[in-house]
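Quick note —
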Amino acid sequence: MRKLFAVIAFVFLTVSFFPEAAFASDGSTVIAKPKPRPNQNRTPNKEESVDAQFQALIEQYPDLALSLESSDVKWVTPTGNGAEADIEKAIQNGAVQTGDGEELTPEELREIQKAQQWLDIQEDLALREIDERALALVKEFAKATNAITPIQGQNGAVTYAYGSLIPKVVCRPNRVTDIALQPGEKVNAVHAGDTVRWQISPAKSGSGAFEVVHVVIKPLMPDISTNLLVMTDRRTYNLDLVASDKNYIPALRFSYPQDTLSDWNTFIAANRAQQEKDVVLEPSYAMSAEDLFFGYKIIDKKKVPWKPTRVFDDGTKTYIQMPKKYRALEAPVLLFYEGKRQKLVNYRVKGELYIVDRIMSSKAVMIAGSSQVVIVREKVR
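Predicted structure written out below.
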């Protein structure tokens, strides 16, 4: 093992401290020099001696200190034909010796090759500034400084606002904690960091659109922790699980503020679309101009801002078209005259149109506060 440690030390020293080739003084068979490893924690001075660099290696890898000395390593130069070719050539030409004269077998040389290849593919683990910033954001979110405070829901369940923080679910051995998802939500996958000391089981309640999936959690011992990811067809739940021997949360639920906002946006969009649709003429009067009668006179003595722009009928219904700005004003009430008496009539408003399912006999009046407009049917159709 002593000589194997010597060979491994050779690989480490060459990779870490000698960007240039090292030459053997006696013209020994060469072994390919490993590729230099970038971003080393320590950049050696080319002026430093082999002993000083060897001491730095021992500090980095203390396990080598018991079995290796700097004199044990014999430095050689690669031929440039590749590590595998050089090692095979060394095997063909005979045994390669370490500094203390011990010979290396072909198997040991192949182990050196494997070690070198492993060093070649090691990734750089140094964190960049942007990576440090990402970790800082994770820590800031974990503090839950701006999180919405949980509330007590139905049956005493602790209710968290989804997405405002990563809930820390306190569990207890010999007790179960029930986490209920949103009704109708389907689970696609569940992943836990520790599946040995934590029991995580599925359950469900209700049926159809009201079916609720439950995640039932039970730790096997106190003073342990892990995390849990639950992926559904709607979202991903990220939870921290902590086991206590004294306290626990029996039931946990979520509220979904984003869904509520989305519901309102959908409602408002649908309402706006319906209003735009209502402006379109109904089939009963979506006809040729020859079927429409415009013989109405609008009398406005006080110049009210909501004065109708047009009144017409199609022989069945009466239509009163209002100006666009009337929506921001007080909507006037419509009454038809029956002889000398005013009478309320059934009408509906669609966009800027008052629609009455009858024809006025002589005249009508529209009243808003102290203002009024008289509509007179000038002649018989």
